[in-house]
Specification:
It is built from five helices and nine strands. With 173 residues, the protein is α+β, with helices and mostly antiparallel strands.
């Protein structure tokens, strides 16, 4: 764990990021970790093309945690102009519970405050993800009261097997 490096993703990383994100959230491999959504969402979480699109946008970055030559974690951070939006936090199931998620969140908070000069960070969490919301609560995030219906996009999020909602969490920095 001493060799973990954080870096900003390039489009050359899109394929590996795609494999990581989909393995963390969907399918059999995801069930080894605590971040799986396989019980209530089918399909894929994201496509390589969508990741490339995110990386190429001027207002977005994808931060990677890398161990040697392997991407073991990633997070998408978007500058909305008034706050940053954190999404797609993913840590390889073999590295979960080792502080990688916390490292990535801390870097998002630092980047938001020091580079983008913003003082708020927000995210959306699926209402079924109680353990995930509790994880963020322990890091100072609070519910904002904003709730929206989960609507699946063709290339993002997957196909719900039940009625789901996004709950917005936020944190002042």
């Amino acid at each position: 764990m001493n060799n973990i490096v954080l870096k900003i993703a390039s489009v050359d990383d899109a394929d590996e990021i795609n494999r990581l994100v989909n393995s963390v959230y969907r399918g059999e491999n995801s069930k080894k970790g605590w971040t799986t959504e396989a019980e209530f969402l089918g399909g894929i979480r994201i496509t390589e093309e969508k990741i490339r699109e995110i990386i190429e946008r001027r207002s977005d970055i994808v931060i990677l945690s890398v161990d040697g030559d392997n991407i073991i974690g990633c997070v998408h951070l978007e500058n909305t102009g008034s706050y940053s939006y954190l999404g797609m936090l993913s840590v390889d199931v073999n590295y979960q519970d080792k502080g990688i998620g916390k490292l990535l969140i801390n870097e998002c908070e630092r980047y938001t405050k020091e580079v983008w000069k913003l003082d708020t960070i927000k995210m959306k969490v699926i209402n079924r993800r109680v353990e995930l919301m509790e994880y963020y609560y322990r890091r100072g995030y609070k519910t904002t009261g904003e709730i929206e219906e989960f609507i699946s996009g063709a290339d993002t999020f997957g196909d719900p097997t039940e009625k789901l909602y996004f709950e917005t969490l936020g944190k002042g920095l």
